[in-house]
Amino acid sequence: MEESLRSGSFYVNQRWLGGILTNYRTIQKRIRRLVEIEEMETSGSINIYPKKEIAQLRKEALRLENFLGGIKEMKKLPDALFVVDPIEDHIAVAEARKLHIPVFGIVDTNTDPEAVDYPIPGNDDAVKSIKLIVSLMADAIVETKGGLLTAAYQEGEITDDITMKDVIINVVQQNEENERRRRARNEERRAQQTTRRPFPPRRRDFDFKRETDTDDSAEVSVTSAAGSADDKRPARRPVVKKVEEAPAEKTETTAPKTTDKVAE
């Protein structure tokens, strides 16, 4: 958008609405609607409507500005069309070819060069690549208008071409710089570890030793008959073992079989 404004060109930086070129009369009606709402906003006549209608009008104007703001001042069909990605903007390319409008486009490895009239080999996914090519296209337009160029070659500028040797030297320098930064980070971490306050020693089990007293023992004082000093010694409770009685064996009692004989 910046390069379009610099070169005085029209642009569409949102989704391409079908019929912008082939159905331009209908698009002009929507552009007039956008201009009408903007004039109402400028003159203040929009305030006579209720708040709900004002909100709807502003929402409509925002949507029209988003899709058609770049071609609001376009009074006729363009003489040429430049697209960044012919695959993404295939509708725009198809409309331009239908109206015999020449198409310039960045052609990547996944794009058919025959889809556009003037293919420009380049990467259409990288931001830097797109910015460079778009700035060169804008400079080509500005040059015809006598404006100031930003990226294209100008007279008086002498620059040496970049060779493979320069690329290798640049890569080696970057690797050395990365290695220096890595060593600096490691030294900083070692310094932080040495100056870090040591952790307190862990509490061992022997720090919590306590006298072993049996819960079931109690001190009792035994006084001798002669009135000697108390002899304190622990008295243990008697341990009663429960003996589990074996279950009584079940004896099967079978009644004697009696055979009654009936005397005839």
Question: Could you describe the 3D structure shown?
Answer:
By secondary structure, the chain is mainly alpha-helical. Among the domains are: 1-13 and 77-149, Rossmann fold, CATH 3.40.50.10490; 22-75, Helix Hairpins (Orthogonal Bundle), CATH 1.10.287. It has helices at residues 2-7, 24-43, 51-68, 90-98, 127-145, 164-195, and strands at 81-83, 103-107, 118-121, 217-222, 231-236. It has a three-stranded parallel β-sheet, covered by helices on one side. 9% of the residues are buried. Residues 211-230 have low confidence and may be disordered. One of its GO terms (molecular function) is structural constituent of ribosome.
What is the rounded distance between the termini? Answer: 134 Å
User: What is the topology, as strand order, of the major beta sheet?
Assistant: 1-2-3
CATH class of the domain at 1-13 and 77-149: Alpha Beta
Q: What is the helical fraction, as a range of percent?
A: 25-40%
GO cellular component, one term: cytosolic small ribosomal subunit
Family: Belongs to the universal ribosomal protein uS2 family.
GO biological process, one term: translation
Keywords: Ribonucleoprotein, Ribosomal protein
Tags for this model:
264 residues, 3-stranded parallel beta sheet, Helix Hairpins, mainly alpha
Question: What would a concise description of this structure say?
Answer:
This protein has 264 residues and is mainly alpha-helical. The protein has helices at 2-7, 24-43, 51-68, 90-98, 127-145, 164-195; strands spanning 81-83, 103-107, 118-121, 217-222, 231-236.
